[in-house]
């Protein structure tokens, strides 16, 4: 039995339905990340799980218990918020201990759990400080410590790293993942950052308009996106999409022709109109390569590689090439394309072919 289960859960605000019937199962100990653009319903889904938003219809179960109409405090979930939600007048020690004191936990147990959490999170030397005297990363650790001492059925994270600078976000996402693996606690994490989702999750749920577009492990999302939306959202830089026609085992892009890889030739040999997708990093040499010629408008050297940014047949195109690739702005260049990594989508539905 799944540890957390959404069964036909919907959410409406007045006459506007923001979450159509949603089914989702999260396993014991799994690190599940909900990701998608702003307004896709990921935070609303998390808040329904936490009990902070009422469910319009359907059921939510945690550890086999129906909690659809249970109060937040009865769900045994610990939530870490985007803004930390620390009490500014309390010390780190008191912030971590607050929920236990409210629930009447004895002093010895509180002291032991606070000490254990502080050691685990590197906060032992900061227990007597106030939040205003801590860095952003330290404040986030305090918020995690407050959740940790509850030993909950699930950790719920609502974009916890969005207020941190880029370097600290990288450090904290590693710390959170290592902590979750050590504790084995089921975790549901919401973010709009697909890099966070890909690097932290056991499984990623890509949402769009309240609908789950695809739920899979990160590599499956990257290599086998269910549709154009997922393909565009997962990966940085984003996948290139070009209008094309497949005929006679070849892909026709305006006046340029690319030969299909053997695995695609049989099933797509005379498909007709398609959307051709290729990731910038897959514009490289391979055993089944083709070539594309385009004119870069911008060249971005990034050390390990260089991005060529331009257009082809009116569509944006980004190619990732070697740092010393011979190219100049405004001049035509020819780049290799690894056709074994090409994707094809239905131009009407966006479904992956």
Keywords for this structure?
353 residues; alpha+beta; Rossmann fold; OB fold (Dihydrolipoamide Acetyltransferase, E2P); 2 domains; six-stranded mixed beta sheet; five-stranded antiparallel beta sheet; 9 helices; 34% strand
Helix content: 25-40%
Annotation field: number of helices: 9
Total discrete domains: 2
Based on the coordinates given, report the CATH architecture of the largest domain: 3-Layer(aba) Sandwich
Q: What is the CATH class designation of the largest domain?
A: Alpha Beta
Q: How are helices and strands ordered from N to C?
A: EEEHEEEHHHEHEHEEHHEEEHEEEEEE
Count all strands and give the number. 19
Please give a structural write-up.
The structure is a single chain. The protein is α+β, with helices and mostly antiparallel strands and 353 residues long. The protein folds into two domains: 4-233, 3-Layer(aba) Sandwich (Rossmann fold); 240-345, OB fold (Dihydrolipoamide Acetyltransferase, E2P) (Beta Barrel). The chain is 26% helix and 34% strand. The protein contains nine helices and 19 strands. The strands form four sheets. The chain has a six-stranded mixed β-sheet with strand order 6-7-8-3-9-10, sandwiched between helices. Strands 13-12-11-14-19 form a five-stranded antiparallel β-sheet. Strands 2-1-4-5 form a four-stranded antiparallel β-sheet, covered by helices on one side. Helix 2 (92-102) packs across helix 3 and helix 3 (107-121) packs across helix 4 (136-148). The two termini are 33 Å apart.
